[in-house]
Amino acid sequence: MEMRVIRPGMLTTVQDLGRRGHLSEGVPNGGAADKFALRVANLLVGNPEDAPALEITLTGPELEFAQAVWVAVCGARFEEVPAWRPLRVESGRRLKLGRRVQGCRAYLSISGGIDVEPVLGSRGTYLAAGLGGFQGRALREGDFVRLLPSTRHPTGHWSIDERVLPHYSREPTVRVVPGAHGEEFGTGLYSGRFGVTPNSDRMGIRLDGPRLERSVQGDLVSAAVAPGTVQVPPDGHPIVLLADAQTLGGYPRVAHAVAVDMPLLAQLAPGDGVRFIGSSVAEAHALAHAQEHRLALLSQGLAGKFRPA
Amino acid sequence: MKMEPLGDSAVVATLGSGVDAATLASVLRLAEAVVAAQGRGIVDVVPAYATVTVFYDPLRFAESSEDAYALVCRFMEACAARSAGASPAAAARAAEIPVCYGGDFGPDLGHVAGHCGLGTDEVVALHSGADYLVHAVGFTPGFPYLGGLPEALRTPRRDTPRARVPAGSVGIGGPQTGVYPIASPGGWQIIGRTPVALFRPDGHPAALLRPGDRVRFKVISAPEFDSWR
Predict the structure, then answer these.
(1) Residue B65: its pLDDT value, please?
(2) How many structural domains are present in chain A?
(3) What is the rounded distance in angstroms from the CA atom of residue A75 to the CA atom of residue A162?
(4) What is the number of H-type helices and E-type strands within chain B?
(5) Contact B58, B65 (CB under 8 A)
(6) Is residue B221 a contact partner of residue B131, using CB atoms and an 8 Å limit?
(7) Which residues contact A171 (CB under 8 A, 6 or more apart)?
(8) A288 lies in a domain?
(9) Is there a contact between A226 and B139 if contact means CB atoms under 8 Å apart?
Protein backbone atom coordinates (compact mmCIF):
# COMPACT_ATOMS: atom_id res chain seq x y z
CA MET A 1 0.00 0.00 0.00
CA GLU A 2 1.45 3.31 -0.97
CA MET A 3 0.83 6.73 -2.39
CA ARG A 4 2.86 8.52 -4.99
CA VAL A 5 3.68 12.19 -4.71
CA ILE A 6 2.89 13.77 -8.08
CA ARG A 7 3.41 17.30 -6.76
CA PRO A 8 4.58 17.93 -3.19
CA GLY A 9 3.04 21.37 -2.58
CA MET A 10 5.06 24.10 -0.90
CA LEU A 11 5.83 22.26 2.33
CA THR A 12 4.16 18.94 3.05
CA THR A 13 5.43 16.92 6.00
CA VAL A 14 4.32 13.90 8.01
CA GLN A 15 3.16 15.03 11.47
CA ASP A 16 1.48 13.49 14.49
CA LEU A 17 0.90 14.82 18.01
CA GLY A 18 4.64 15.28 18.60
CA ARG A 19 7.27 13.97 20.99
CA ARG A 20 7.49 14.32 24.73
CA GLY A 21 10.25 14.03 27.27
CA HIS A 22 13.17 15.33 25.20
CA LEU A 23 12.96 19.08 25.88
CA SER A 24 15.97 18.98 28.21
CA GLU A 25 17.99 17.55 25.30
CA GLY A 26 16.96 20.46 23.12
CA VAL A 27 14.45 18.47 21.07
CA PRO A 28 11.15 20.34 20.60
CA ASN A 29 7.77 18.65 20.97
CA GLY A 30 6.99 19.36 17.32
CA GLY A 31 4.09 17.53 15.72
CA ALA A 32 1.16 19.16 13.97
CA ALA A 33 1.03 22.94 14.38
CA ASP A 34 -2.79 22.60 14.58
CA LYS A 35 -3.24 19.50 16.71
CA PHE A 36 -7.02 19.91 16.88
CA ALA A 37 -7.32 19.62 13.11
CA LEU A 38 -4.98 16.62 13.00
CA ARG A 39 -6.96 14.80 15.69
CA VAL A 40 -10.31 15.39 13.97
CA ALA A 41 -8.87 14.44 10.56
CA ASN A 42 -7.82 11.10 12.04
CA LEU A 43 -11.16 10.52 13.79
CA LEU A 44 -13.01 11.12 10.51
CA VAL A 45 -11.27 8.24 8.73
CA GLY A 46 -11.34 5.86 11.70
CA ASN A 47 -7.71 6.26 12.73
CA PRO A 48 -6.38 6.70 16.26
CA GLU A 49 -6.26 10.45 17.02
CA ASP A 50 -2.48 10.48 17.12
CA ALA A 51 -1.86 8.70 13.81
CA PRO A 52 0.58 10.41 11.46
CA ALA A 53 -1.03 12.52 8.71
CA LEU A 54 0.21 15.05 6.18
CA GLU A 55 0.60 18.68 7.21
CA ILE A 56 0.09 20.74 4.06
CA THR A 57 1.30 24.34 4.00
CA LEU A 58 -0.33 27.05 1.83
CA THR A 59 -0.31 25.07 -1.43
CA GLY A 60 -1.75 21.60 -1.79
CA PRO A 61 0.06 18.51 -3.03
CA GLU A 62 -1.18 16.16 -5.73
CA LEU A 63 -1.20 12.53 -4.64
CA GLU A 64 -1.97 9.26 -6.38
CA PHE A 65 -3.17 6.24 -4.46
CA ALA A 66 -2.46 2.68 -5.62
CA GLN A 67 -5.62 1.49 -3.85
CA ALA A 68 -8.86 3.00 -2.68
CA VAL A 69 -8.55 4.97 0.57
CA TRP A 70 -10.59 7.27 2.74
CA VAL A 71 -9.11 10.66 3.49
CA ALA A 72 -10.14 13.78 5.38
CA VAL A 73 -8.83 17.31 5.03
CA CYS A 74 -9.12 19.49 8.14
CA GLY A 75 -7.78 22.89 9.15
CA ALA A 76 -7.09 25.13 6.15
CA ARG A 77 -9.76 25.02 3.43
CA PHE A 78 -8.97 24.30 -0.19
CA GLU A 79 -11.21 24.88 -3.20
CA GLU A 80 -11.53 21.37 -4.62
CA VAL A 81 -11.88 19.35 -1.42
CA PRO A 82 -14.66 19.70 1.14
CA ALA A 83 -13.18 20.02 4.63
CA TRP A 84 -14.02 18.22 7.89
CA ARG A 85 -15.61 15.12 6.33
CA PRO A 86 -14.44 11.72 5.10
CA LEU A 87 -13.88 11.40 1.35
CA ARG A 88 -13.26 8.29 -0.68
CA VAL A 89 -10.44 8.31 -3.24
CA GLU A 90 -10.67 5.43 -5.70
CA SER A 91 -7.75 3.25 -6.65
CA GLY A 92 -5.44 4.90 -9.17
CA ARG A 93 -7.14 8.27 -8.73
CA ARG A 94 -5.27 11.48 -8.01
CA LEU A 95 -6.20 13.72 -5.13
CA LYS A 96 -5.77 17.43 -5.77
CA LEU A 97 -6.64 20.14 -3.28
CA GLY A 98 -6.75 23.12 -5.60
CA ARG A 99 -6.50 26.71 -4.47
CA ARG A 100 -6.29 27.64 -0.81
CA VAL A 101 -9.40 29.42 0.46
CA GLN A 102 -8.68 30.02 4.15
CA GLY A 103 -6.06 29.12 6.72
CA CYS A 104 -2.43 28.14 6.43
CA ARG A 105 -2.13 24.43 7.21
CA ALA A 106 -4.39 21.56 6.20
CA TYR A 107 -4.17 18.08 7.68
CA LEU A 108 -4.74 15.21 5.30
CA SER A 109 -5.44 11.95 7.12
CA ILE A 110 -5.49 8.64 5.26
CA SER A 111 -7.41 5.62 6.55
CA GLY A 112 -4.91 3.24 8.14
CA GLY A 113 -2.26 5.93 8.51
CA ILE A 114 1.18 6.57 7.07
CA ASP A 115 3.80 3.88 7.60
CA VAL A 116 6.86 5.66 9.03
CA GLU A 117 9.00 4.75 12.02
CA PRO A 118 8.90 6.74 15.27
CA VAL A 119 12.05 8.70 16.16
CA LEU A 120 12.37 9.82 19.78
CA GLY A 121 8.79 8.82 20.38
CA SER A 122 7.09 10.54 17.45
CA ARG A 123 6.45 9.98 13.76
CA GLY A 124 6.40 13.74 13.19
CA THR A 125 9.01 15.43 11.01
CA TYR A 126 11.45 17.79 12.72
CA LEU A 127 12.89 19.58 9.71
CA ALA A 128 15.68 21.51 11.47
CA ALA A 129 17.35 18.29 12.62
CA GLY A 130 16.19 16.19 9.67
CA LEU A 131 14.58 13.58 11.88
CA GLY A 132 11.28 11.70 12.02
CA GLY A 133 8.50 11.62 9.46
CA PHE A 134 9.34 10.62 5.88
CA GLN A 135 13.16 10.49 5.76
CA GLY A 136 13.34 13.54 8.04
CA ARG A 137 12.23 15.90 5.29
CA ALA A 138 9.33 17.40 3.39
CA LEU A 139 7.76 15.29 0.61
CA ARG A 140 9.21 15.65 -2.88
CA GLU A 141 7.95 14.90 -6.34
CA GLY A 142 8.23 11.19 -7.09
CA ASP A 143 8.29 9.99 -3.48
CA PHE A 144 6.50 6.73 -2.73
CA VAL A 145 5.07 6.86 0.78
CA ARG A 146 4.00 3.57 2.37
CA LEU A 147 0.55 3.38 3.92
CA LEU A 148 -0.88 1.02 6.50
CA PRO A 149 -4.01 -1.02 5.76
CA SER A 150 -7.10 0.32 7.46
CA THR A 151 -9.26 -1.86 9.64
CA ARG A 152 -12.48 0.11 9.22
CA HIS A 153 -14.14 2.47 6.78
CA PRO A 154 -16.62 5.30 7.16
CA THR A 155 -20.20 4.46 6.15
CA GLY A 156 -22.42 6.82 4.21
CA HIS A 157 -22.00 10.52 3.65
CA TRP A 158 -21.74 12.78 6.62
CA SER A 159 -19.68 15.60 8.04
CA ILE A 160 -19.16 16.94 11.53
CA ASP A 161 -21.06 19.74 13.21
CA GLU A 162 -18.80 22.72 12.61
CA ARG A 163 -19.87 24.26 15.92
CA VAL A 164 -17.25 22.05 17.60
CA LEU A 165 -14.46 23.72 15.61
CA PRO A 166 -12.19 26.46 16.93
CA HIS A 167 -13.20 29.93 15.70
CA TYR A 168 -10.77 29.97 12.80
CA SER A 169 -10.40 33.42 11.28
CA ARG A 170 -8.02 35.52 9.24
CA GLU A 171 -8.19 38.06 12.08
CA PRO A 172 -8.56 36.05 15.29
CA THR A 173 -8.28 37.31 18.84
CA VAL A 174 -5.99 35.00 20.78
CA ARG A 175 -6.17 34.58 24.53
CA VAL A 176 -2.86 34.80 26.38
CA VAL A 177 -1.59 34.29 29.91
CA PRO A 178 0.79 37.15 30.90
CA GLY A 179 4.45 36.11 30.76
CA ALA A 180 7.33 36.55 33.20
CA HIS A 181 8.17 39.95 31.67
CA GLY A 182 4.64 40.98 30.75
CA GLU A 183 4.53 43.98 33.06
CA GLU A 184 7.72 45.37 31.54
CA PHE A 185 5.83 45.93 28.29
CA GLY A 186 2.76 47.74 29.64
CA THR A 187 -0.38 47.18 27.59
CA GLY A 188 1.32 47.26 24.17
CA LEU A 189 0.47 43.67 23.29
CA TYR A 190 -3.22 44.26 23.93
CA SER A 191 -3.71 47.54 22.13
CA GLY A 192 -3.53 46.82 18.45
CA ARG A 193 -3.50 44.51 15.47
CA PHE A 194 -0.34 42.64 14.55
CA GLY A 195 0.30 41.46 11.01
CA VAL A 196 1.72 38.03 10.10
CA THR A 197 4.94 38.40 8.09
CA PRO A 198 6.09 36.00 5.36
CA ASN A 199 9.16 34.84 7.28
CA SER A 200 6.97 32.89 9.68
CA ASP A 201 7.35 29.12 9.83
CA ARG A 202 6.79 26.10 12.08
CA MET A 203 9.23 27.57 14.60
CA GLY A 204 7.37 30.81 15.03
CA ILE A 205 5.07 33.49 13.67
CA ARG A 206 6.91 36.76 13.21
CA LEU A 207 4.61 39.73 13.64
CA ASP A 208 4.81 43.34 12.61
CA GLY A 209 2.69 46.24 13.74
CA PRO A 210 2.99 48.24 16.96
CA ARG A 211 6.50 47.95 18.41
CA LEU A 212 6.59 46.73 21.97
CA GLU A 213 8.81 48.87 24.21
CA ARG A 214 10.38 47.31 27.26
CA SER A 215 10.63 49.57 30.30
CA VAL A 216 13.66 47.73 31.72
CA GLN A 217 17.01 47.19 30.06
CA GLY A 218 19.45 44.34 30.36
CA ASP A 219 20.02 40.85 29.03
CA LEU A 220 18.19 37.86 30.40
CA VAL A 221 19.53 34.46 31.26
CA SER A 222 18.06 31.91 28.81
CA ALA A 223 15.20 29.78 30.10
CA ALA A 224 12.66 27.36 28.67
CA VAL A 225 10.17 28.57 26.07
CA ALA A 226 7.43 26.55 24.40
CA PRO A 227 4.87 26.66 21.62
CA GLY A 228 2.64 29.64 22.45
CA THR A 229 5.34 31.76 24.07
CA VAL A 230 5.26 35.34 22.79
CA GLN A 231 8.80 36.67 22.96
CA VAL A 232 10.03 40.14 22.10
CA PRO A 233 13.45 40.56 20.46
CA PRO A 234 15.26 43.92 20.70
CA ASP A 235 13.52 45.24 17.56
CA GLY A 236 10.20 45.22 19.46
CA HIS A 237 8.35 42.98 16.98
CA PRO A 238 6.91 39.98 18.83
CA ILE A 239 7.38 36.37 17.76
CA VAL A 240 4.78 33.74 18.71
CA LEU A 241 6.47 30.36 18.95
CA LEU A 242 4.85 27.39 17.18
CA ALA A 243 5.26 23.61 17.23
CA ASP A 244 8.98 23.51 16.35
CA ALA A 245 9.89 26.25 18.85
CA GLN A 246 13.43 26.00 20.11
CA THR A 247 13.47 24.77 23.69
CA LEU A 248 15.37 27.71 25.24
CA GLY A 249 15.01 31.43 24.68
CA GLY A 250 16.84 34.51 25.87
CA TYR A 251 14.34 37.17 24.81
CA PRO A 252 11.78 38.64 27.22
CA ARG A 253 8.56 36.60 27.41
CA VAL A 254 5.65 39.01 27.29
CA ALA A 255 2.83 36.44 27.21
CA HIS A 256 1.88 32.90 26.29
CA ALA A 257 -1.08 31.81 24.15
CA VAL A 258 -3.54 29.42 25.80
CA ALA A 259 -3.43 25.87 24.42
CA VAL A 260 -6.93 25.87 22.91
CA ASP A 261 -6.06 28.93 20.79
CA MET A 262 -2.92 27.39 19.27
CA PRO A 263 -4.95 26.15 16.26
CA LEU A 264 -5.96 29.76 15.51
CA LEU A 265 -2.29 30.74 15.43
CA ALA A 266 -1.30 27.70 13.37
CA GLN A 267 -3.79 28.75 10.68
CA LEU A 268 -2.46 32.29 10.27
CA ALA A 269 -0.98 32.92 6.84
CA PRO A 270 1.19 35.85 5.75
CA GLY A 271 -1.00 38.94 5.49
CA ASP A 272 -3.45 37.78 8.13
CA GLY A 273 -3.66 39.63 11.43
CA VAL A 274 -4.02 38.81 15.11
CA ARG A 275 -5.03 40.58 18.31
CA PHE A 276 -4.33 39.46 21.85
CA ILE A 277 -6.52 39.51 24.91
CA GLY A 278 -5.53 38.69 28.48
CA SER A 279 -6.63 35.41 30.03
CA SER A 280 -5.60 33.37 33.06
CA VAL A 281 -4.20 29.93 33.72
CA ALA A 282 -7.47 28.88 35.36
CA GLU A 283 -9.55 30.04 32.38
CA ALA A 284 -7.14 28.31 30.00
CA HIS A 285 -7.55 25.03 31.89
CA ALA A 286 -11.34 25.32 31.86
CA LEU A 287 -11.23 25.95 28.09
CA ALA A 288 -8.95 22.95 27.57
CA HIS A 289 -11.28 20.66 29.54
CA ALA A 290 -14.30 21.96 27.62
CA GLN A 291 -12.61 21.33 24.27
CA GLU A 292 -11.63 17.84 25.37
CA HIS A 293 -15.27 17.12 26.28
CA ARG A 294 -16.38 18.25 22.84
CA LEU A 295 -13.78 16.05 21.16
CA ALA A 296 -14.77 13.08 23.31
CA LEU A 297 -18.44 13.58 22.33
CA LEU A 298 -17.43 13.85 18.68
CA SER A 299 -15.41 10.65 18.95
CA GLN A 300 -18.34 8.83 20.60
CA GLY A 301 -20.72 10.17 17.99
CA LEU A 302 -18.54 8.80 15.21
CA ALA A 303 -18.24 5.34 16.76
CA GLY A 304 -21.29 3.97 14.91
CA LYS A 305 -20.35 5.44 11.56
CA PHE A 306 -17.72 2.88 10.57
CA ARG A 307 -17.82 -0.67 9.32
CA PRO A 308 -14.99 -3.22 9.29
CA ALA A 309 -12.79 -3.01 6.19
CA MET B 1 12.45 30.24 44.87
CA LYS B 2 10.14 32.26 42.65
CA MET B 3 7.48 30.41 40.64
CA GLU B 4 5.40 31.69 37.77
CA PRO B 5 3.40 30.21 34.90
CA LEU B 6 4.77 29.70 31.39
CA GLY B 7 1.36 29.63 29.76
CA ASP B 8 -1.21 27.05 30.81
CA SER B 9 1.04 23.98 30.77
CA ALA B 10 4.28 24.86 32.57
CA VAL B 11 5.65 26.37 35.77
CA VAL B 12 9.02 28.17 35.84
CA ALA B 13 10.95 28.13 39.10
CA THR B 14 13.77 30.70 39.30
CA LEU B 15 16.54 29.88 41.76
CA GLY B 16 19.01 32.67 41.15
CA SER B 17 19.80 35.55 38.86
CA GLY B 18 23.18 34.78 37.38
CA VAL B 19 25.18 32.23 35.47
CA ASP B 20 27.13 30.48 38.20
CA ALA B 21 27.94 26.98 39.36
CA ALA B 22 26.15 27.33 42.72
CA THR B 23 22.87 28.37 41.10
CA LEU B 24 23.18 25.57 38.55
CA ALA B 25 23.78 23.06 41.35
CA SER B 26 20.52 24.00 43.07
CA VAL B 27 18.73 23.97 39.70
CA LEU B 28 19.97 20.44 39.03
CA ARG B 29 19.01 19.26 42.52
CA LEU B 30 15.46 20.50 42.02
CA ALA B 31 15.21 19.07 38.50
CA GLU B 32 16.45 15.69 39.73
CA ALA B 33 13.97 15.69 42.61
CA VAL B 34 11.08 16.54 40.28
CA VAL B 35 12.03 13.76 37.85
CA ALA B 36 12.47 11.25 40.69
CA ALA B 37 9.11 12.10 42.29
CA GLN B 38 7.21 11.22 39.09
CA GLY B 39 4.40 13.58 39.95
CA ARG B 40 1.03 12.96 38.35
CA GLY B 41 0.54 14.92 35.16
CA ILE B 42 4.20 16.01 34.92
CA VAL B 43 5.37 15.51 31.34
CA ASP B 44 8.81 17.15 31.06
CA VAL B 45 11.44 18.99 33.11
CA VAL B 46 13.92 21.51 31.69
CA PRO B 47 16.81 22.72 33.86
CA ALA B 48 18.66 25.67 32.31
CA TYR B 49 21.03 28.17 33.97
CA ALA B 50 18.96 29.58 36.86
CA THR B 51 15.56 28.03 36.18
CA VAL B 52 13.74 24.72 36.30
CA THR B 53 10.69 24.61 34.04
CA VAL B 54 8.20 21.85 34.76
CA PHE B 55 5.73 21.01 31.98
CA TYR B 56 2.41 19.46 32.95
CA ASP B 57 -0.71 18.25 31.19
CA PRO B 58 -3.69 20.18 32.58
CA LEU B 59 -6.05 17.49 31.27
CA ARG B 60 -4.52 14.95 33.66
CA PHE B 61 -5.84 16.98 36.59
CA ALA B 62 -9.49 16.58 37.54
CA GLU B 63 -11.51 19.59 36.46
CA SER B 64 -13.17 19.90 39.83
CA SER B 65 -10.00 19.64 41.90
CA GLU B 66 -7.96 22.59 43.10
CA ASP B 67 -6.46 24.31 40.12
CA ALA B 68 -3.70 22.34 38.43
CA TYR B 69 -1.23 25.23 38.50
CA ALA B 70 -1.40 25.50 42.29
CA LEU B 71 -1.00 21.73 42.66
CA VAL B 72 2.10 21.70 40.44
CA CYS B 73 3.59 24.65 42.36
CA ARG B 74 3.01 22.87 45.65
CA PHE B 75 4.56 19.69 44.23
CA MET B 76 7.63 21.66 43.15
CA GLU B 77 7.93 23.30 46.57
CA ALA B 78 7.87 19.88 48.19
CA CYS B 79 10.56 18.68 45.78
CA ALA B 80 12.66 21.76 46.54
CA ALA B 81 12.33 21.21 50.29
CA ARG B 82 13.36 17.58 49.91
CA SER B 83 16.33 18.38 47.69
CA ALA B 84 17.67 21.42 49.57
CA GLY B 85 21.15 20.74 50.85
CA ALA B 86 21.19 17.24 49.41
CA SER B 87 24.14 16.38 47.27
CA PRO B 88 23.14 15.67 43.68
CA ALA B 89 22.23 12.02 43.20
CA ALA B 90 23.83 11.90 39.79
CA ALA B 91 27.58 12.31 40.08
CA ALA B 92 29.02 15.06 37.90
CA ARG B 93 30.15 13.56 34.63
CA ALA B 94 33.28 14.67 32.80
CA ALA B 95 33.63 14.63 29.04
CA GLU B 96 36.68 15.27 26.88
CA ILE B 97 35.81 16.51 23.42
CA PRO B 98 38.49 16.32 20.71
CA VAL B 99 38.70 19.45 18.54
CA CYS B 100 40.66 20.24 15.42
CA TYR B 101 41.19 24.01 15.65
CA GLY B 102 41.59 26.50 12.79
CA GLY B 103 41.80 25.97 9.05
CA ASP B 104 38.56 25.13 7.25
CA PHE B 105 37.18 23.77 10.53
CA GLY B 106 37.65 27.05 12.37
CA PRO B 107 37.25 29.93 9.90
CA ASP B 108 36.95 32.56 12.68
CA LEU B 109 40.03 31.52 14.67
CA GLY B 110 42.03 34.38 13.16
CA HIS B 111 39.28 36.89 13.90
CA VAL B 112 39.05 35.77 17.52
CA ALA B 113 42.83 36.00 17.89
CA GLY B 114 42.82 39.51 16.39
CA HIS B 115 39.93 40.65 18.58
CA CYS B 116 41.61 39.30 21.72
CA GLY B 117 45.12 40.51 20.82
CA LEU B 118 46.48 36.97 20.96
CA GLY B 119 48.17 34.56 18.60
CA THR B 120 46.01 31.77 17.18
CA ASP B 121 48.11 29.22 19.08
CA GLU B 122 47.41 31.13 22.30
CA VAL B 123 43.67 31.06 21.59
CA VAL B 124 43.85 27.29 21.07
CA ALA B 125 45.92 26.80 24.23
CA LEU B 126 43.54 28.89 26.33
CA HIS B 127 40.36 27.33 24.88
CA SER B 128 41.62 23.77 25.28
CA GLY B 129 43.16 24.47 28.68
CA ALA B 130 39.99 25.55 30.48
CA ASP B 131 37.37 23.61 32.43
CA TYR B 132 33.81 24.17 31.27
CA LEU B 133 30.42 23.53 32.80
CA VAL B 134 27.24 22.72 30.82
CA HIS B 135 24.64 25.27 32.00
CA ALA B 136 21.91 24.24 29.57
CA VAL B 137 21.22 22.15 26.48
CA GLY B 138 19.06 23.68 23.78
CA PHE B 139 18.98 26.04 20.79
CA THR B 140 19.28 22.94 18.62
CA PRO B 141 19.10 19.30 19.78
CA GLY B 142 22.10 18.53 21.97
CA PHE B 143 23.66 22.04 21.83
CA PRO B 144 25.58 22.57 25.12
CA TYR B 145 25.87 26.09 26.49
CA LEU B 146 29.24 26.06 28.24
CA GLY B 147 30.28 28.46 30.99
CA GLY B 148 33.92 28.91 31.95
CA LEU B 149 35.32 30.53 28.81
CA PRO B 150 38.55 32.37 29.80
CA GLU B 151 37.80 36.11 29.86
CA ALA B 152 40.67 36.74 27.44
CA LEU B 153 38.74 34.82 24.74
CA ARG B 154 35.42 36.70 24.96
CA THR B 155 34.46 37.73 21.44
CA PRO B 156 31.12 39.17 20.29
CA ARG B 157 29.01 37.16 17.88
CA ARG B 158 29.32 37.77 14.16
CA ASP B 159 27.39 40.80 12.86
CA THR B 160 25.74 38.58 10.28
CA PRO B 161 24.96 35.01 11.35
CA ARG B 162 25.97 32.24 8.97
CA ALA B 163 23.10 30.51 7.20
CA ARG B 164 24.73 27.16 7.83
CA VAL B 165 27.27 26.19 10.46
CA PRO B 166 28.49 22.59 9.92
CA ALA B 167 27.78 19.91 12.53
CA GLY B 168 30.54 19.63 15.12
CA SER B 169 31.59 23.28 14.88
CA VAL B 170 32.98 24.76 18.10
CA GLY B 171 32.13 28.41 18.61
CA ILE B 172 32.49 31.40 20.90
CA GLY B 173 29.53 33.71 21.50
CA GLY B 174 30.35 36.53 23.93
CA PRO B 175 31.19 34.96 27.32
CA GLN B 176 30.12 31.45 26.28
CA THR B 177 31.39 28.64 24.16
CA GLY B 178 29.54 25.68 22.68
CA VAL B 179 29.38 23.03 19.99
CA TYR B 180 26.85 22.89 17.13
CA PRO B 181 25.64 19.25 17.16
CA ILE B 182 23.76 19.53 13.86
CA ALA B 183 24.20 21.81 10.88
CA SER B 184 22.18 24.95 11.59
CA PRO B 185 22.22 28.71 11.17
CA GLY B 186 24.49 30.34 13.74
CA GLY B 187 26.13 33.59 14.75
CA TRP B 188 28.97 32.38 16.96
CA GLN B 189 32.66 32.69 16.03
CA ILE B 190 33.71 29.26 14.76
CA ILE B 191 37.22 28.26 15.89
CA GLY B 192 37.31 24.50 15.34
CA ARG B 193 35.37 21.29 14.82
CA THR B 194 34.92 18.02 16.68
CA PRO B 195 34.43 14.63 14.99
CA VAL B 196 32.30 13.50 17.94
CA ALA B 197 28.50 13.40 17.45
CA LEU B 198 26.87 15.41 20.24
CA PHE B 199 23.39 14.39 19.12
CA ARG B 200 22.30 10.94 17.94
CA PRO B 201 18.55 10.51 17.44
CA ASP B 202 18.91 6.74 17.99
CA GLY B 203 21.01 7.13 21.15
CA HIS B 204 19.87 6.72 24.75
CA PRO B 205 20.04 9.51 25.66
CA ALA B 206 20.10 11.29 22.31
CA ALA B 207 22.17 14.21 23.60
CA LEU B 208 25.77 13.43 24.57
CA LEU B 209 25.91 16.16 27.22
CA ARG B 210 23.49 17.28 29.90
CA PRO B 211 23.41 20.23 32.27
CA GLY B 212 25.96 19.85 35.07
CA ASP B 213 28.49 17.94 32.96
CA ARG B 214 32.12 19.09 33.08
CA VAL B 215 33.76 19.48 29.68
CA ARG B 216 37.32 19.87 28.44
CA PHE B 217 38.49 20.22 24.86
CA LYS B 218 41.48 18.26 23.57
CA VAL B 219 43.51 19.42 20.58
CA ILE B 220 43.66 16.97 17.69
CA SER B 221 45.25 17.28 14.26
CA ALA B 222 43.44 17.20 10.93
CA PRO B 223 44.61 13.60 10.23
CA GLU B 224 43.41 12.57 13.69
CA PHE B 225 40.07 14.23 12.91
CA ASP B 226 39.81 12.32 9.62
CA SER B 227 40.60 8.95 11.20
CA TRP B 228 38.31 9.50 14.20
CA ARG B 229 35.29 7.55 12.98
Answers:
(1) 63
(2) 2
(3) 12
(4) 5, 13
(5) no
(6) no
(7) A193, A272, A273, A274, A275
(8) no
(9) no
- What is the residue type of B222? A
User: Do A32 and A160 reside in the same domain of the chain?
Assistant: yes
- If contacts are CB pairs under 8 Å, which of residues 91-110 in chain B contact chain A? none
Q: What is the pTM of this model?
A: 0.95
Interface membership of B3 toward A (CB under 8 Å) = no
Query: In this structure, are A151 and A207 located in the same domain?
Result: no
Of A124, A140, A147, A154, nearest in space to A244 by CA: A124
Q: Give dist(CA A242, CA A30) in Å, integer.
A: 8
Domain boundaries, chain B: 2-83, 94-226
DSSP structure string for B110-166: HHHHHHHT--HHHHHHHHHHS-EEEEEE-SSTT-EEEE---GGG-BPPPSS-EEEEP
- What is the torsion angle, in degrees rounded to the nearest 10, for the CA atoms of residue A127, residue A130, residue A132 and residue A135? 110
CATH number of B94-226: 2.40.100.10
**Taking the mean position of all CA atoms in its chain, how far away is CA A164?**
17
pLDDT band for A211, please (50, 70, 90 cuts): very high
User: Which of A248, A257, A259 has the CB atom closest to B48's CB atom?
Assistant: A248
Class of domain B2-83: alpha beta
ipTM above 0.90 for this complex: yes
For residue B44, what are the β-bridge partners? Answer: B55
> Residue A119 corresponds to which amino acid?
V
Q: What is the pLDDT of residues B137-153, one digit of tens each?
A: 998 999 999 999 999 99
Reduce the DSSP state of residue A5 to 3 states and report it. Answer: strand
Quick check: B45 contacting A, CB < 8 Å?
A: yes
| Domain-embedded: residue A299 | no
User: Helix-strand-coil percent breakdown of chain B, rounded to 5?
Assistant: 30, 30, 40
Segment A108-119, tens digit of pLDDT: 999 999 999 999
Residue range(s) defining the domain that contains residue A244: 173-278
Q: Is B203 on the interface with A (CB under 8 A)?
A: no
Helix (H, G, I), strand (E, B) or coil at A31: coil
Q: Which residue in the set A21, A120, A226 is minimally distant from B6, CB to CB?
A: A226
Q: Are residues A146 and A38 in the same domain?
A: yes
Per-residue pLDDT tens over the stretch A146-182: 999 998 899 877 888 888 999 999 999 999 999 999 9
Give the SS3 label for residue A304.
helix
